[in-house]
Q: What sequence folds into this?
């Protein structure tokens, strides 16, 4: 595989995928915090989104401006084909490594 | 779209965020995201909580984005930075590391910080003085549009360029100046009387347009109307805010009320704004009206003139216009104006005390020297510490830290020390400033513009921090560079001393520099103290011990006539002579040594002058017959005044030696005649010659002076002199009672002993001596410490060699001599340089302190010897320790 996904990058891509058309920073963060049960720093999220876009795993577009944003547009993200491929590769790698490994505590 | 409640995130935080994240569309989206979330937060938890939340997020996100946007450098292969660490956080880490390293050696850090604090505090004090007295913005609007116009006399010297202007000249200047609106000011000692006790205040009579020219609006009431500038209409006054509160209790109905000033009714028409008391702490202003004959006497110069430039005009343009006017006046009225010009300067420059500026320059030079000394000591300490850490640094360098990073770490340590020194300097400087202010007599402080506002403010602290950072270069950079120039091989060798000869040379240079600086400071201190002592205790031609002075200026219509004035003062003198404890009584119009003076132009019978430039001046003293005797002024020839000299007898005078020598050179003046210039004045016959009395300490030369009997020329403004055998302080109350027994409505002021009067004149010199004395001692101390440290370290470094020598049979005395010899050689070089520096500084002081300081060889010799002895002492102690080195231990090291 050509791109290796860091752990946080992995979570971000999954969240974007889940949110479909409504994936911008605010709900992406909410989704990760809720579903992965892990605190997300906004700064880390923005830099990761930038990095993923640089790696061409995400694509962004500007939405409409809204009053409660002080007239600024939202930036929506979608997962590219490469991104999907990276996610698939990561899932497969985990599956292969996990095969046959007991994750429950051993019964004495 | 619903309207926003409350209006969005905190503006400042959002602005900050925008600055941190930049200006791209992506950055915009980030700002918008936070705005959106803020909106939700505000709805859920209220605006206050939302704002706090926003600040945290804005700083967090902004900081993170900023850091991630920093240009990436190739990761340095060094133990100081992790790969990929941005520049900023590396610096922060180094700073924390520096703090930790210093915390490990608290004693070292403490010594350095204290040394730097002392050096910086001295500088901060002087900087505060300079800022407050010379640089500080004057509290007037558009101060750069205001100028002061002086008369320029056809004499030499700095004071000749700052003369007053006569009323007639002023009227011409005012009319012909197109570049500025000019107004005139005249001293006015205003006596307020009435329901409360009589009070003498500083006031000024000013042209009606005074307040407009200064751009000052009155706080209540009005200023002066143009037609109030004439006699008869000028009984109106504007009082200061301070006076309004102190004497009139802040009564709002004061405007329009009539009060008694100088015994006459004045209507108060306005109150000046708070803190306005220009010039010289004035409390009251009244319109200036010229008497009809005042305009004829062009030689009577007593007005100060200021002006506001019109439009885009410059002071140079005004100067040109007025020069043309004064040239025309010189041609038209040669008797009074020949050779006179004008001198225009910005008002902000003119209010600076002439003496203060010169004095402060000298002080600043001295404090910079102290700081250099402190830096040299600290540099020494850092070099030693660098040598001790040589192994650690060599290892770091070998492991891949770039030399630049190690130097940066060491410099950061120095910066931390410098800033700590600056922090410590602030309370020290504040204390020193308070001491200065306490030491200044209030009578003098009033004349030094800005004295009462002296403070350690933001500007001074800023300058202090800057100085601290700059001094880091002096004491931190060199040791840091040296410390990193180590060779690993040599360091790790057994018994590695880690020193190279370059380090020795540097330390030797330090000793030389320190000795030179210390000698300069000590000599300057010696010269100042001698100068001050000389001025304070020099023989000024009279004996000031045990004399109390009290000034009385008669006010009120009862004393209009010369007879009434004469009667009052003569009876007062009689009362005083009868009082217990008073040995001598006299009256004079101006106390000797006081800042005031009374002078006039004189004509010598039989020796007329052709033009204005050659006119003869003399100081005039109106005295009672026992004045010369009471003050123990020498009577050289002739006789003193007696009670027989009355208004109806022959007009007589006594002249001073200088006046006799200058105006009747080669002849005996007794029996000759002269008069105050002008046809109304009688010709006076000289009946005696008195010894010179030194009046003005600014002027080292004696001025011609003459005395006239008070009975023949009674002035309403006189100083009562009371002499007693012991301490004259109790005479203050006795004197006041004597005056009030004669007339309870007369204010008595300027009550102080002649010694105090003399002291006030010499205040500047005393300050100089005080400052320089402290600096000299500090310099001596720092240099002593520095020499000791260097010598001690040298001995420590050479213990091996010394032990070897002694083991081979060298005599202890020879070892001692060798160590001592090196130290003394360096000291001698330093003394040589120091003598040159001391001479230069001494010459500067001589030139700037109006001749009261003289460069004399004895001071040089004495302090050279003192410093030499101190250097010997500082070298001997470590040298003796060298003797106690046990050869076996030394060789084993």
A:
């Amino acid at each position: 595989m050509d791109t290796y996904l860091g752990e946080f990058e992995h979570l971000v891509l999954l969240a974007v995928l889940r949110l479909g058309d409504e994936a911008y920073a605010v709900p992406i963060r909410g989704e990760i915090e809720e579903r992965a049960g892990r605190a997300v720093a906004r700064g880390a999220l923005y830099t990761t989104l930038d990095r993923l876009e640089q790696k061409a795993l995400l694509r962004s577009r500007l939405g409409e401006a809204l009053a409660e944003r002080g007239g600024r547009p939202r930036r929506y993200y979608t997962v590219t084909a490469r991104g999907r491929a990276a996610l698939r590769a990561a899932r497969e790698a985990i599956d292969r490594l996990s095969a046959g490994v007991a994750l429950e505590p051993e019964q004495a | 779209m619903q309207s926003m409640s409350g209006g969005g995130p905190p503006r400042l935080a959002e602005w900050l965020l925008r600055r941190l994240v930049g200006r791209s569309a992506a950055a915009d989206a980030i700002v918008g995201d936070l705005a959106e979330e803020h909106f939700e937060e505000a709805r859920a938890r209220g605006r206050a909580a939302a704002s706090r939340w926003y600040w945290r997020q804005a700083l967090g996100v902004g900081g993170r984005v900023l850091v991630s946007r920093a240009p990436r450098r190739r990761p340095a292969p060094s133990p100081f930075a992790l790969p990929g660490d941005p520049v900023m956080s590396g610096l922060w880490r180094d700073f924390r590391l520096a703090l930790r390293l210093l915390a490990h050696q608290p004693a070292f850090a403490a010594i350095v910080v204290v040394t730097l604090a002392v050096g910086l505090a001295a500088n901060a004090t002087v900087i505060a003085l300079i800022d407050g007295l010379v640089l500080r913005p004057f509290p007037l609007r558009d101060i750069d549009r205001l100028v002061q116009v002086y008369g320029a006399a056809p004499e030499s010297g700095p004071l000749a360029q700052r003369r007053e202007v006569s009323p007639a000249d002023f009227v011409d200047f005012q009319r012909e100046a197109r570049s500025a609106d000019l107004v005139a000011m005249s001293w006015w000692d205003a006596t307020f009387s009435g329901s409360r006790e009589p009070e003498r205040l500083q006031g000024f009579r000013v042209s009606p347009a005074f307040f407009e020219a200064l751009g000052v609006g009155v706080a209540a009431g009005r200023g002066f109307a143009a037609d109030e500038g004439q006699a008869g209409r000028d009984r109106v006054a504007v009082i200061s805010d301070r006076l309004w509160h102190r004497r009139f209790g802040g009564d709002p109905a004061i405007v329009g009320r009539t009060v008694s000033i100088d015994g006459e009714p004045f209507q108060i028409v306005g109150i000046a704004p708070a803190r306005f008391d220009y010039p010289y702490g004035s409390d009251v202003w009244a319109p200036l009206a010229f008497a009809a004959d005042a305009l004829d006497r062009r030689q009577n110069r007593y007005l100060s003139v200021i002006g506001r430039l019109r439009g885009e005009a410059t002071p140079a343009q005004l100067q040109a216009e007025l020069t043309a006017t004064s040239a025309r006046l010189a041609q038209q009225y040669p008797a009074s104006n020949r050779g006179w010009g004008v001198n225009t300067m910005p008002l902000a420059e003119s209010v600076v005390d002439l003496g203060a500026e010169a004095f402060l320059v000298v002080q600043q030079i001295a404090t910079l020297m102290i700081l250099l000394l402190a830096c040299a000591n600290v540099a020494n300490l850092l070099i030693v510490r660098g040598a001790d850490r040589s192994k650690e640094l060599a290892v770091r360098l070998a492991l891949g830290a770039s030399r630049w990073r190690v130097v940066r770490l060491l410099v950061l340590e120095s910066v931390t020390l410098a800033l700590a020194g600056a922090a410590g300097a602030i309370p020290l400087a504040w204390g020193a400033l308070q001491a200065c202010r306490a030491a200044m007599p209030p009578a003098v402080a009033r004349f030094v513009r800005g004295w009462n506002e002296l403070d350690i403010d933001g500007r001074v602290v800023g300058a202090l921090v800057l100085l601290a950072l700059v001094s880091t270069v002096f004491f931190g950079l060199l040791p840091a560079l040296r410390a990193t120039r180590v060779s690993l091989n040599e360091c790790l060798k057994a018994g590695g001393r880690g020193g190279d000869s370059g380090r020795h040379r540097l330390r030797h240079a330090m000793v030389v520099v320190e000795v030179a600086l210390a000698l300069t400071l000590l000599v300057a201190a010696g010269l100042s103290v001698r100068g001050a002592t000389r001025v304070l205790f020099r023989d000024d031609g009279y004996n000031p011990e045990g004399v109390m002075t009290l000034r009385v200026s008669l006010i009120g219509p009862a004393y209009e006539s010369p007879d009434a004035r004469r009667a009052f003062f003569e009876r007062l003198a009689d009362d005083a002579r009868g009082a217990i404890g008073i040995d001598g009584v006299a009256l004079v119009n101006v106390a000797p040594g006081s800042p005031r003076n009374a002078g006039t132009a004189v004509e010598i019978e039989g020796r007329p002058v052709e033009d204005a430039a050659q006119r003869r001046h003399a100081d005039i003293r109106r005295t009672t017959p026992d004045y010369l005797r009471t003050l123990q002024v020498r009577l050289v020839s002739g006789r003193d005044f007696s009670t027989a000299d009355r208004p109806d007898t022959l007009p007589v005078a006594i002249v001073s030696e200088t006046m006799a020598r200058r105006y009747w050179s080669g002849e005996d003046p007794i029996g000759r005649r002269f008069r105050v210039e002008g046809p109304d004045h009688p010709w006076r016959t000289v009946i005696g010659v008195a010894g010179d009395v030194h009046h003005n300490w600014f002027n080292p030369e004696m001025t011609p002076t003459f005395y006239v009997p008070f009975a023949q020329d009674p002035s309403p403004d006189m100083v009562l002199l009371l002499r007693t055998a012991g301490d004259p302080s109790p005479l203050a109350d006795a004197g006041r009672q004597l005056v009030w027994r004669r007339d309870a409505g007369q204010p008595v002021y300027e009550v102080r002993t002649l010694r105090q009067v003399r002291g006030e004149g010499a205040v500047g010199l005393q300050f100089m001596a005080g400052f320089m004395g402290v600096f000299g001692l500090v310099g001596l101390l720092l240099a002593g410490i520095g020499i000791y440290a260097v010598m001690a370290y040298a001995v420590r470094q050479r213990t091996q060699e010394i032990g070897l020598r002694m083991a081979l049979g060298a005599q202890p005395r020879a070892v001692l001599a060798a160590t001592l010899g090196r130290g003394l050689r360096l000291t001698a070089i330093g003394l040589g340089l120091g003598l040159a520096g001391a001479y230069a500084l001494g010459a500067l002081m001589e030139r700037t302190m109006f001749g009261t300081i003289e460069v004399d060889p004895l001071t040089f010799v004495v302090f050279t010897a003192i410093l030499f002895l101190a250097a010997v002492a500082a070298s001997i102690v470590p040298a003796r320790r060298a003797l106690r080195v046990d050869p076996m231990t030394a060789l084993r090291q």
In short: The longest strand of chain B covers residues 180-193. The interface with chain A takes residues 1-2, 4, 8-9, 14, 25-26, 28-37, 39, 57, 60-61, 63-65, 68 of chain B (CB under 8 Å).
